[in-house]
Amino acid sequence: MNLILATDNSGGPEIFSSLQGEGLSAGVPCTFVRLSRCNLACVWCDTAYTWRFEGDARPHRDGIAFNRRVNQVTLSVAETAAAIDRHTPRRLVITGGEPLLQGAALAELAASLRGYAIEVETNGTVAPHRRFDGYVEHYTVSPKLAHSGNARELALDPVRLSAWAAEPRAWFKFVIARPADVEEVLAIQARFAIAPNRIYLMPEGTGSAALRERTSWLADLCLRHGFRLSDRLHIHLYGDTRGT
């Protein structure tokens, strides 16, 4: 079985070591594998090279269409596992794109690895593959708010959100561009009875200046509502670059 991965700047698979920049494991050394393909299209997505290929008319603020052959690579599960094993950190972050679209292959990958704590970053619209789910330590679920540009019925599936809210390994991370976005978060929290300490608010932005400006008012909103604050540490350290 194969996995479809994003490519790094060298054209090879985007498998790398770095400090986790967001959420529950922020600051922890991790090995990352970035899968290609996504079922949503966020206008501010910082990994549009995983889905906005030539011929895809879904909007993005940069307006760039990527060549699929240059930005995707297919590896067998065994090849992917071998590439992961070349890295030292034994916390594995599986991200995308939307990684759960490749659940069956991820189940094979997880079964072939030894000694890894696995976390998954997902947009929350896809159910975990039953066999893969047993290998996952925690999920970072990032439902997309209205400012993402996605249709609400695609981005905020009530069946899936109910399932994630009932999953104790799920932590919720919401991308916030303006203070009014937090009203959407509060509505989702109330509807699905999500404890506030399971919710992270993270500023939208791909540069340190924008992140710092938004964090200045987002911190107060986190204090007011009992939410956690997530920065984007990797942006401050390395900029908006692949493989970091």
End-to-end CA span: 27 Å
Secondary-structure content class = alpha/beta
Kindly report the oligomeric state of this protein: single chain
Main beta-sheet strand count, sense and barrel state: 8 strands, mixed
Query: Please, what is the CATH homologous superfamily?
Result: Aldolase class I
Number of helices: 9
H/E series: EEEHEHEHEHEHHEHEHEH
Radius of gyration: 17 Å
CATH class: Alpha Beta
* Helical coverage, percent range: 25-40%
DSSP strand count: 10
CATH topology: TIM Barrel
- For the record, the count of structural domains works out to 1
Binding site for substrate: 19-21, 34, 95
InterPro entries: 7-CO-7-deazaguanine_synth-like (IPR024924), Aldolase_TIM (IPR013785), rSAM (IPR007197), rSAM_sf (IPR058240)
Cofactor: S-adenosyl-L-methionine; [4Fe-4S] cluster; Mg(2+)
Pfam family, one: Radical_SAM
